[in-house]
Design goal:
The protein is an alpha/beta fold. It has two domains: about 120 residues, Response regulator (Rossmann fold), CATH 3.40.50; about 100 residues, OB fold (Dihydrolipoamide Acetyltransferase, E2P), CATH 2.40.50.1020. It contains six helices and 15 strands.
């Protein structure tokens, strides 16, 4: 399931985007969950997962740019699409990693062009993220957010920097092929992200989320070498 949020203080515009998004993903045979918000403040109070966010820039109260800054400073790592009246406002959006922008009034052709690109991106996800399947839902997880991965009974547990644990079914060997060189298989049941490594002593890796991960004796020598090489390169 793809979780979509629309934040616009004009209800008719929210309804318009909602209708086009529903129609687009219906044609793609993709299940979605849609939520609408009428202000940036309301959106910031929402604690659920958002994969795609349509955000109006010009809103009463907290504007879209300030809302986006606060979201990015938190845990939001989804696709951000700004809705705006003025194209010039978009040049201020680079700092919040906006995927694209739609100019009001948003027509179906403009919307579909943006969504086709975004949908293709979600299929490939990109080198910086993982797309994991949790039951009937799909979840985008940025690789840099992963502190370490643990496998228990064929189930993967991604321990994230936010403290959240994302679990799903996959072989750790398959996961290993999707991760970057700064991930290391330190144990048959663990992969760690060297970016989150705080220390290493006596067969234990100390992570920056205050968790400890075992390093097997068979891999300890290689692990020490990999850590030293990683430190030279950063």
């Amino acid at each position: 399931m793809i979780r979509i949020a629309i934040c616009d203080d004009e209800k008719h515009m929210s309804d318009h985007i909602r209708a086009m998004a529903s129609d687009f993903f219906r044609k793609k045979n993709s299940e979605i969950r849609l939520r609408t918000f009428l202000s940036g403040e309301d959106l910031l109070n929402y604690d659920g997962q958002i994969d795609i966010l349509f955000l109006d820039i010009q809103m009463d109260g907290m504007d879209g740019l300030e809302t986006a800054r606060k979201l990015r400073a938190g845990k939001f790592r989804g696709f951000l699409i700004f809705i705006t009246v003025l194209k010039e406002m978009v040049f201020q959006s680079f700092e919040v990693q906006a995927y694209d922008y739609l100019v009001k009034p948003v027509d179906e052709k403009q919307f579909e062009k943006t969504m086709e690109r975004l949908f293709a991106s979600m299929q490939n996800v990109g080198e910086d993220s993982l797309l994991v399947q949790q039951g009937y839902e799909r979840r985008i997880v940025p690789k840099d957010e992963i502190v370490f991965c643990e496998v228990i009974d064929r189930k993967i547990y991604l321990n994230l920097a936010s403290g959240e644990v994302v679990d799903y079914y996959e072989r750790i060997e398959n996961l290993e092929t999707k991760l970057d060189s700064y991930f290391f298989r330190c144990h048959r049941s663990y992969l760690i992200n060297l970016k989150h490594l705080k220390g290493y002593k006596n067969g234990t890796a100390y992570m920056d989320n205050n968790k400890e991960v075992p390093v097997s004796r068979l891999r300890s020598k290689e692990f020490s070498g990999v850590v030293l090489q990683y430190m030279k390169n950063i």
